[in-house]
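**Folding the chain**
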Amino acid sequence: MKIAIGSDHGGFEYKQAVKKYLSEKGIEVIDVGTYTKDSVHYPSFGIAVGERVRDKKVDFGVVICTSGEGITIAANKVEGVRAGIGYNDNVSAKLREHNDANVIGFGQNEMELVDVLRRIDIFLAAKFEGGRHQTRVDIIDNYKK
């Protein structure tokens, strides 16, 4: 499995921890930045993760900023990306099971790191259920076209 990860300065500490956690599990991690705590613009990193997902260079993406909102919105602007915030365990599973999400977002100031790590595991373990959910994903994808 290969995962792209990106953050702005507000998510940098969690990005570093997530990167280490995933690498220790044997998952290849592509870090698209940022690489310091210096102030940067979150859309650049959400889009960079989204582009790698779109281009099938990775299987999934993880994006992190202060709240999780902005960087997840930015990732969603990339064609073929379905991103949502893993704000609890149930939603982290439903993102995959019901929405076939391929990017999960987090807010460094909104949740504990231990919760983020657990929710990434939940997200990666969940499988898209298809069926009526596929119909709904198709409606979203067709609207973009």
